[in-house]
Write a structure and sequence with these properties.
By secondary structure, this protein is mainly α. Helices cover about 85% and strands about 0% of the residues. The protein is elongated, with a radius of gyration of 16 Å.
């Protein structure tokens, strides 16, 4: 339930953006719609986060280790995706 709850917002944004693209041929959120595409890289991390957090807690017994590791991985992925997309746009 938590994994699906984490990704439902991203899936709704995709559905609205690409639903409008398919039906009208234009995007809803203007010329900078590449930001919606970046969400594709975040969905798998958001889906796996509850499982990773629970596993880290079972291994270490500490409730702060998992969030720190998952946060660092998420930030590294977001920075890498931003760097890749900003070089593609310019």
């Amino acid at each position: 339930m938590l994994a699906l709850g984490n990704i439902i917002g991203c899936v709704l944004i995709w559905a609205v953006q690409y639903g409008k693209l398919v039906t009208t041929g234009s995007v809803l959120w203007g010329p900078q719609w590449i930001g919606v595409l970046v969400i594709a890289f975040c969905v798998w991390q958001l889906f796996l986060a509850p499982f990773l957090l629970r596993k880290f807690y079972q291994i270490t017994g500490k409730n702060w280790v998992g969030p720190i590791i998952v946060s660092v991985l998420y930030v590294l992925s977001a920075v890498a995706n931003t760097a890749i997309h900003s070089t593609l746009i310019h």
